[in-house]
Amino acid sequence: MAVVFIGLFAGFYGALFGVGGGTIIVPALIWLGQRPRVAAATSLAAIGITAVAGAVFYAWYGEVRVLYALLVGIPAAAGALLGTAFQQRLHNRVLTGLFAVLLATIGLKLVIG
Q1: I want to staple 90 with a disulfide (CB 3.0 to 4.6 A). Which of 64, 84, 95, 110 is the partner?
Q2: Structurally, how many domains does the chain consist of?
Q3: Which of 50, 40, 43, 41 lies closest to 18 in space, CA to CA?
Q4: What is the mean pLDDT of the chain?
């Protein structure tokens, strides 16, 4: 049941701010006992579903810029392949530590401006 709540919250949060997988799903799944690699892979699969649902609704309101989506999305897909290959070479503690540093840095930047 906790996983369903995580999905609902991540979808809402993701649509509201354009994020959700890395800031909600991954930490929550790790908290529930999943290994970081499993949490990241599961998040990416879930985000695919969430992204389609959100994009369709935003498109309904005329908010999607398809050219920009392609210009960002295609290189992002290549980056995801590279990131996945690199992630497989990191120890779980290193991966979790780097992720924590990233989230803390983003949080500080948002608060401090």
Answers
A1: 95
A2: 1
A3: 50
A4: 89
Q: What CA–CA distance (Å, rounded) separates 107 from 82?
A: 25
Tokens of 51: 């992204």
Q: At how many degrees (to 10) do helices 66-87 and 36-60 cross?
A: 180
Structural domain of residue 52, as residue ranges? 2-112
Residue 72: helix, strand or coil by DSSP?
A: helix
Would you place residue 15 in the very low, low, confident or very high pLDDT band (cuts 50, 70, 90)?
confident
Both structure tokens of 98: 């780097």
Q: Enter the tokens of residue 113.
A: 């401006």
Report how far residue 89's alpha carbon sits from residue 50's, in angstroms, rounded to the nearest whole number: 28
Whether 15 contacts 7, CB under 8 Å = no
Cα–Cα dist 91/13, whole Å: 29
56 pLDDT tier (thresholds 50, 70, 90) = very high
